[in-house]
Amino acid sequence: MTTFSPSDYQCDVLIVGSGAAGLSLALRLASHYRVTVLSKAQVNEGSTLYAQGGLAAVFDETDSVDSHVEDTLIAGAGLCDREAVSFVASNARHCVQWLIDHGVAFDTDPQAGGEMRYHLTREGGHSHRRILHSADATGREVETTLVGQALRHPNIRILERTNAVDLILSDKLGLPGPRRVMGAWIWNRNRERVETCQARAVVLATGGAAKVYQYTTNPDVASGDGIAMAWRAGCRV
Fold this sequence. Notes:
Layout: E1 9-16, H1 20-29, E2 35-39, H2 47-50, E3 55-56, H3 65-75, H4 82-101, E4 108-110, E5 116-118, E6 120-121, E7 131-132, H5 138-152, E8 156-160, E9 162-169, E10 181-188, E11 193-204, H6 225-232
Parallel strand pairs: 1-2, 1-11, 2-8
Antiparallel strand pairs: 3-7, 4-5, 6-7, 9-10, 10-11
């Protein structure tokens, strides 16, 4: 039977990936749980850092969530799941406001009387101005802000230059009961050795797989590791 070494990492929640998804989840959980975040390179390196345009959410009083949903379904040409689109559009403003509350600075537009509103742009497929942005480097603003917050949080440990190799499954350890994920094997490039991280829950926030193609503008870390690990563990892809 395989067991965990006493020298391995242990935490409540292991988050694989240090982009906007992984870091925002870490910050939401860290007030209640001990969180470890794995970053394949430096903590701020990833697709989030290079995202330019902005984030779509209904902030204009002339706009509506229903309009946002319909615009998205039309642009999706029948490929979008209405329930998923409705969920995302309905929660977009709440999530963007959470970023604002955590220090993300979106561009503002001074109004008559000194009132400040967010500068909203309109992109293809949108019938209203609903894109909040930080110049043309919104991803950099979001990522660097979240990294700063995470590094300062006492319940968040960030391991840089560590690749998740595979998920640790209970049946692989010979444990009884239904199969469950118990952590991950990780390649620590700083120490040049494979280590284990035991966790009560594991979140795969690893982004896409653009680097499987010969030509892409995505960073090197977008290589589909999380998708492959999920598939090997029995998840649908």
